[in-house]
Each structure stands twice: as structure tokens, then as C-alpha cells.
Design brief:
By secondary structure, the chain is mainly alpha-helical. The protein has 20 helices and no strands. Helix 13 runs parallel beside helix 19. It is globular, with a radius of gyration of 30 Å.
Length: 458
């Protein structure tokens, strides 16, 4: 065992210390020399590495980007387009398989499906930010088709809840958010136009499916109608499973609830989220009740059945045109102007309407202006967000909206009952909530601009 000479160790340390202060003896070393020795023995830690570079500017066009929009269009048709048409099942369920249940009980099948469609947004938004859309879209496509196939076999109430409301509703959510978030990553200057084109798929689904489903039920029966719809959606979903992708690379991160809550610390996001909630609370009530309201005012069943497809057809043009206008003059500006017009149409045209002509005019004009809200909501959120967190930001906003989808129809039904079967209370509630949504969108613009009426593209 090797021994150490203490005197030689002290000599070595003193020589090392005096090297910092030549000319001083070992007994005269100041404290500063000791500090210098500490710095030599324990060097300063290296600076942290620089953050990774941003994703860069999106291409705003090109074949690859527009193929993503095509995939998004198909996703919108199969997800939100199907959700827009589920009101056609209400009458059939009440009359045939679930006739022993009350209409309000049957309505929960559709309400739960709509709630899950929007309520799963935070989860799928986080999955999108971490892993991209591919596997989320693939699994959603399989289970959406599977849910509709199982619905074709359902005969009991709980079976409809499990197959259509839960399985198909959650799967449709995965399909919708994989498409909306993906399209947003490929565009900046033309983002609203691209999202408007993609969302027009849901409007066309709301035209085709409400006409197609009742005719098929009469011709081939309900089970094969659901199977036919499932096969058609399976064919359409093959397109986005080939072309849809995010421009951003996967960035896996752990799921933290505060990541969603923290969004509401931002004032402009709070305004946008509240505005979206209140406007959504009213905007789908005409879609759900315009047929019944028309029949209550003497419109024949044959003509009233086409009111909803006409409304959705006008929505196609509203989504595309407003998207282009939003890119040119400002997305918040277009959102504010069209939400105001939409609320006024409900209060000034639909509320006093008692015959076919004004109801038909309302269906066309409301469809056009309300389509703006559906198309521009993701674009407005993207405008105030870091594109790398677009999934979480859109997910947070749509999760808040989902509660409006859950409570909107029950409130409307209660108001119709309070009005003894009339629709005026419901129509007034619809117009008032949308007017409140308009005011909150104005607040979101004011927070960013600093003045209510100063014109600026935003």
C-alpha cells in the first residue's frame, strides 16, 4: 500500500496557489487566491444547447399541400358531415326500433355522439402534436366504419348508444381533428381558404346524407342502409389515409393537464373560446329544428324535408368564399361581420317567419353565413397560436364547445315545451346566444388591436 507524505502534499498545494500570485510567499496568500483555485478545480458548467429551430414558413400551396386539403375534405364529409345528418335518425328510431322510449330519451343517442365528436378534441389534439395524424386517422377510420356496421345490427337502446354514440362518435372525432390540424400546418396566408375548402366536405355531407338515408331505409331497410353508408365512408377514408399528413415532424411529449389549462391565461384565447361556445350554442339549432318549425307553419312534409339540404348546400359556398375573404381582409374581421349578420337573420327573418317563402330565404342566407363560423373557427385559433401547438390549442377550444353541443338541444327542447309547442322562445334564445358570441369576438379583436373600430387586417 502506497503511503502519502503530508508535507509533500502541502508543498504541492502551496506551489499551486502561489502560481496565481507570483511574488508572494506561501504564508501571505489572500482569500482571492483560494477562490481562483476553486474556479480551476470546479469549472463553470457549459451553456445549455440552443432551442431547436422553428418549422419555417409553410408552402401555402403546391400539389402536396392541396392533396392534404383533398384528404381533409374527405375526412370532413365522413366525420362532421355524418354528424350533421344524424337528425334524420331521430324520426326512424322513435317510430321503429325504439318506439317504447320517449323522444327525449332517443335524442340522447344523437347528443352523446355530438358531444364525443367535439369533447375528445383535447386528447386527439395532443396525440396530433406528439405523433402526427397517420395512426390516429387509421384507427379512427376503422372504428368509425365498425361502429356503423354494429349500428346496423342494433335492436336495443344500449346497443345504439355503444355503437353509434360512443364508438362512431369517438372515431369521427379522431378523423376530424387529424384533418383540421393537418391542413392548418401547410398554409399561412391562405389558411382560411384551405380550411374552408376542407370543411365544405362536411356541408356536402349534410346535403347528400339527409336525402340519401331516408330513401335507402324505405328501399332496402335500416340494416343495409347503415352498411351501405359504412362502405361508402370506408371508400372515402382511403383517400386521406394515403395523402393526409402534417408538415411538422412528430414531437412526443408527456400529457399534462396544465398544458390545456394554461391556454386560458391568455386573454385573447379566453375571448375566442367564450365566443365560440356561445355562438355554437345557437348556430346548430336552426339545423336541428328548421324542418319541424316549417311543418308547424304549414310547409308540407315533402318540401320541408329539403330545407336542411338547402341550408347545407348554401353553407358550402359560405365556407369557401368566407375563407378566401378572411385571408384577404382579416379572419377576425370576417368572423365578426358574418356572426353579426347570422344573429340578425335569426332575429329578424326566422323569428317572424310563418310561411314557406321567408323560411326558404332564411335557409339559404343562414346556411351561407353560418358556414363562415364553422370554417373560420380553426383558422382564428391558429392565427393566435404557435403552429407547433395547434393540436392542443384547437383541442382546448373544441372541448369547451362540446358542452354547448351537449346542452343546446335539451335547452331548446325545454323552451319549445315552455312555449306549448311553439318555436319563438327557442328562436329568441338562438339569436341571443349568437349575438353574445358576436360581442365576444369583437372583444377578442379589441384585445389585439387596442381599439374597437380601428380598421386593420386581423
Amino acid at each position: 500500500m502506497t503511503s502519502t507524505n503530508p508535507s509533500s502534499t502541502r508543498t504541492t498545494l502551496e506551489e499551486k496557489r502561489t502560481s496565481f500570485n507570483p511574488g508572494l510567499s506561501s504564508g501571505e496568500l489572500p482569500i482571492l487566491d483560494h477562490a481562483a483555485l476553486e474556479l480551476e478545480e470546479y469549472p463553470k458548467p457549459a451553456a445549455p444547447p440552443p432551442p431547436p429551430p422553428g418549422p419555417g414558413e409553410p408552402p401555402d400551396g403546391g400539389l402536396e399541400a392541396w392533396l392534404v386539403v383533398l384528404g381533409g375534405w374527405c375526412c370532413n364529409f365522413c366525420s362532421l358531415g355524418f354528424i350533421n345528418s344524424i337528425g334524420t335518425f331521430q324520426t326512424y328510431y322513435e317510430q321503429v326500433p325504439l318506439r317504447e322510449h320517449s323522444p327525449s330519451t332517443v335524442a340522447w343517442i344523437l347528443s352523446i355522439e355530438t358531444f364525443l365528436m367535439f369533447g375528445c378534441a383535447p386528447f386527439f389534439g395532443k396525440v396530433f402534436d406528439s405523433y402526427g395524424p397517420r395512426y390516429m386517422l387509421m384507427v379512427g377510420s376503422v372504428f368509425h366504419v365498425f361502429g356503423l356496421m354494429m349500428t346496423s345490427l342494433a335492436t336495443q337502446y344500449y346497443q345504439f348508444i355503444l355503437a353509434q354514440s360512443v364508438c362512431s362518435g369517438i372515431a369521427a372525432s379522431a378523423i376530424y381533428y387529424s384533418s383540421t390540424n393537418s391542413v392548418a400546418t401547410w398554409f399561412k396566408k391562405n389558411r382560411a381558404l384551405a380550411l374552408g375548402c376542407a370543411s365544405s366536405g362536411s356541408a356536402l355531407g349534410g346535403v347528400v346524407l339527409p336525402i340519401m338515408i331516408p330513401h335507402l331505409i324505405r328501399e332496402i331497410g335500416f340494416p343495409w342502409t347503415m352498411r351501405t353508408i359504412a362502405f361508402m365512408l370506408m371508400a372515402l377514408l382511403s383517400i386521406p389515409n394515403i395523402f393526409l399528413k402534417s408538415r411538422l415532424p412528430p414531437n412526443p411529449k408527456p400529457f399534462r393537464i396544465m398544458e390545456f389549462v394554461r391556454n386560458y391565461q391568455e386573454v385573447r384565447f379566453r375571448f375566442v373560446s367564450l365566443a365560440s361556445f356561445f355562438f355554437f350554442l345557437g348556430v346548430f339549432l336552426p339545423t336541428n329544428f328548421i324542418i319541424l318549425q316549417g311543418q308547424a307553419n304549414g310547409v308540407s312534409k315533402t318540401l320541408s324535408a329539403y330545407l336542411l339540404p338547402i341550408l347545407n348546400a348554401a353553407s358550402i359556398f359560405g365556407r369557401i368564399i368566407s375563407g378566401r375573404a378572411g385571408d384577404m381582409v382579416g379572419r377576425f374581421n370576417i368572423m365578426i361581420s358574418t356572426t353579426l349578420v347570422t344573429a340578425l337573420l335569426v332575429l329578424a327573418l326566422w323569428l317572424p317567419a310563418t310561411s314557406l317563402a321567408p323560411i326558404m330565404v332564411f335557409a339559404v342566407t343562414f346556411g351561407f353565413t353560418s358556414g363562415t363560423y364553422v370554417a373560420l373557427t380553426p383558422a382564428v385559433v391558429a392565427q393566435i397560436s404557435d403552429i407547433r401547438a395547434i393540436g392542443v390549442r384547437n383541442g382546448t377550444n373544441f372541448f369547451f364547445i362540446s358542452f354547448a353541443a351537449l346542452i343546446g338541444n335539451p335547452i331548446a327542447g325545454a323552451l319549445i315545451g315552455r312555449d306549448h309547442g311553439g318555436y319563438r322562445y327557442m328562436q329568441a334564445f338562438c339569436g341571443a346566444t349568437m349575438m353574445l358570441g358576436f360581442a365576444l369576438f369583437v372583444g377578442a379583436r379589441w384585445v389585439q388591436v387596442g381599439a374597437l373600430w380601428r380598421w386593420i387586417k386581423i
